[in-house]
Structures are given as C-alpha cells and as structure tokens.
Design brief:
- By secondary structure, the chain is an alpha/beta fold.
- The protein has two domains: 240 residues, Type I PLP-dependent aspartate aminotransferase-like (Major domain) (Aspartate Aminotransferase, domain 2, 3-Layer(aba) Sandwich), CATH 3.40.640; 140 residues, Aspartate Aminotransferase, domain 1 (Alpha-Beta Complex), CATH 3.90.1150.
- A seven-stranded mixed beta sheet has the order 1-7-6-5-4-2-3, with helices on both faces.
- β2, α4 and β3 form a beta-alpha-beta unit.
- α2 runs parallel beside α8.
- The protein binds pyridoxal-5'-phosphate.
- The site of pyridoxal-5'-phosphate has 16 residues, from α3 and α4.
Length: 389
C-alpha cells in the first residue's frame, strides 16, 4: 500500500454512525452508568474521541506508538520538558526555534535545568557536551531559519549510548518527508500550526513517542497540566493532514524553483536550502528525508536590517507574517520577528544575519512567486541604500 493510501485510510470512519468525516465531539463530559462505568470516556480533558482520532493518526504518520495533541507547538515542547527534574541537563541545537529558546532559558533554567546550546550539525559537538546529568538531546532538522541539517541517526546513537532521550522538532520537514522515530529518536514534536494544519487557520501541537511507556508519561503530563487540543481544532488538523502529501510535494518543488532563482540574483549573498548541492549537509538531508521542504532563507549583500525590511515590505504574494507552512506564501525577518528574543551576538553566531529573510513558499504558481521576488528587488534598488552588485 502506498503512503498516500495508507494515510487516507488511517482516518477512521465513525463507528457509531458511519460518518465518513470524523465527528466533532463538542462536549466537556460523558455519561456514566455508574461511577467509573462508561463508554471509555469520562471527562474531555482526559479523553475526547475527535482528539483521539488525531492522536492516533499522528502516531501512524510518524510510525510511533503514541500521539498526544496539545493546544500549541510550545505546549507540546513544554510537556516534553516536564519529563525532566531539577539538576537535569539538556543539549540543544544552537539555532533553535526562538520560542523554544525562550521556554528553555527563561522558564526552565529557573527550576535548575541547564541547557547547553551546540552546533549539532556536527554530532561530535553533541557528544562533547554530554555530562552525567544529560537527560535530553533536542534537535531541529532542518533548523529555523538557516535550514541546518542534523544527522538524526548518529545523534540517536549518541543518545542511546548515554541513556538519554532524543527529541526531534519535526515541524519543518513534516512526516511526509522525514520520520525521526524510524532513525532512532525517542520523541518527535510538531507545531501542527504549520504544515500539518497547513492552512494558517489554527494553533496546535503534537508529541509522538516511539515507545508506549514514554507515551504514557506524556499523556499523564497532558492530563495533569491540561494544555489539550480542543475537538474542533483536532478536526481541523485531521482535515489538514488529509492533503499533507499532496501539499508537501508542491511546497518542495516551488521552494526549489525559488531557491535556484535566488542563487542567480546579484543582490543575494547566501541562499539556505538543503536541496542545493552546495548546502554543507546536503547529503545527509538527502539520506534522511525524501524531500527538502518548503522553507528557503537568504541574506543580502547589503547586510542590514533596513535592506531586509525594505524587501519584506515590497512583495505582493509573499505576505509579511510570522509562521509558515500554509498554502499562502509568507515571509519574515527573523532578526526583528521570530528571533528577537535571542541576544544579537548569539543570533549572529548561529547564522541569523541582520539581513536574513525567511520565505515560507506556498502553493501559488512558482513563476508568479519568482516574479514577485524579482519586482521586490527592483523596487528596493531605488531606495537610499543601493544594493551592491
Ligand atoms: C512555530 C514553531 C514552534 C512553536 O509552535 P506554536 O504552534 O507556535 O506554539 C516550534 N517549533 C518550530 C520549529 C516552529 O516553527
């Protein structure tokens, strides 16, 4: 059975009515015949059939054991961190998602959890940062926004040898392209707000565990802390996932066309896209994922915030907004938007230059998107700072 068929038929029909679409069980509580005697549900924070359908689908998609759905990607990340206790250490990829950095550093460090940020594109840096207290290794691949690639299989082997967990934030690739649990990771997290939802119309998060035992721990945290995904939003994510393989294919081909165009443009300094053969970890990206995704970043020869802001306010189809992974193309300026909570020295050291622009290439026609970028470059040429040849 092909992946597309498997995916579509992993979405259950309703056992009660035969409804082809998963029903939205909009209820807070469930009837009990006698205390503790019920149809498998008692209270909707603990369990809801619509959410369960999504959680089950997510587990199947990532080839894991348990899926757990949260009210945001950060709530999902937060649930994983709650596996830790005071004194534990985390090794995390250095150009981590800004919100995860804020949570790790400004919430969890005060509980005595230490985070070591390393350039995880070379697994030796992860290995060298291990201590007796390391409990969790945290990577993103591709990373946000400079599309660095970490070798999941090698880092999973390091985690296993050291008896700590490897968690992969798989938001950028999505399970349509990359399945970290198959490469040996213990946990995967998603901001389902992005490609899984796919339409820029919801906020949601997922954790998927490889093993049942870790799944039970996260489920306990989900119920104990309460940041569940509501029934309607669960339904929307299921609806998004139905077209995931189809959308991802187009995101990938459009992003490649845009990346190749940017490489040829005289105003552009660096182009970041794992599908380019000159990307430093292109070979690993090719090995561990079946495609290179829909995100492309680039910096300008005129490496200033002003030049980047002029660009991001000159496009028509690429809309200036945070987030990514929807059908509509978006762009953002990480230094002043998604990554502003990261100190500037640290930000620059991880490759997020002042002029870096991140594109979330949507599902419009590739030629129209390239024309849009071209006209934006023409427009900013006439501003006070001239883009250098
Ligand atoms: C957006 C994002 C998150 C956070 O998810 P929310 O749904 O916004 O809470 C985490 N990781 C990555 C890589 C993201 O892009």
């Amino acid at each position: 059975m092909s992946n597309a068929t498997k995916l579509i038929h992993s979405i259950p029909t309703d056992p009660l009515t035969g409804a082809i679409s998963v029903p939205i069980y909009q209820t807070s509580t469930f009837l009990q015949e006698a205390p503790g005697i019920n149809k498998g549900y008692d209270y909707a924070r603990t369990g809801n059939p619509t959410r369960f359908a999504l959680e089950d689908l997510a587990a199947k998609l990532e080839e894991g054991h348990t899926g757990i759905a949260f009210s945001s990607g950060l709530a999902a990340i937060d649930a994983v961190l709650k596996l830790l206790k005071t004194g534990d250490e985390i090794i995390a990829v250095d150009d981590i998602y800004g919100g995860a950095f804020r949570l790790f550093t400004h919430v969890y460090e005060k509980f005595g959890i230490t985070v070591h940020y390393v350039d995880a594109t070379d697994p030796i840096h992860v290995f060298n940062a291990l201590t007796a207290a390391t409990r969790l290794i945290w990577i993103e691949t591709p990373t946000n926004p400079t599309l660095k690639i970490c070798d999941i299989k090698t880092i999973a082997a390091i985690a296993k040898a050291h008896s700590c967990w490897l968690c992969v934030d798989n938001t950028f690739a999505s399970p349509a392209l990359q399945k970290p649990l198959v490469w040996g990771a213990d946990l995967v997290v998603h901001s389902a707000t992005k490609y899984l939802g796919g339409h820029s119309d919801l906020i949601a998060g997922l954790v998927i565990t490889k093993e049942k035992e870790l799944g039970e721990k996260i489920k306990f945290i989900q119920n104990a802390s309460g940041a569940i995904l509501p029934a309607f939003d669960s339904w929307l994510v299921i609806r998004g996932i139905e077209t995931l393989p189809l959308r991802i294919e187009k995101h990938c081909s459009n992003a490649r066309a845009v990346a190749e165009f940017l490489c040829s443009h005289p105003a552009v300094d660096k182009v970041y896209y794992p599908g380019l053969t000159n990307h430093p970890n292109h070979e690993i990206a090719k090995k561990q994922a079946s495609g290179f995704g829909g995100i492309v970043s680039f910096s300008l020869k005129e490496d200033t915030t002003e030049a980047a802001i002029a660009f991001v306010t000159s496009t028509h189809y690429f809309k200036l907004a945070e987030s990514l992974g929807g059908i509509k193309s978006l762009l953002c300026h990480p230094a002043t938007m998604t990554h502003k909570s990261i100190p500037s020295e640290k930000r620059k050291a991880s490759g997020v230059a002042d002029s870096l622009v991140r594109l979330s290439v949507g599902l419009e026609d590739a030629g129209d998107l390239i024309d849009d970028i071209e006209q934006a470059f023409e427009k900013i040429k006439h501003k006070s700072f001239l883009l250098k040849k």
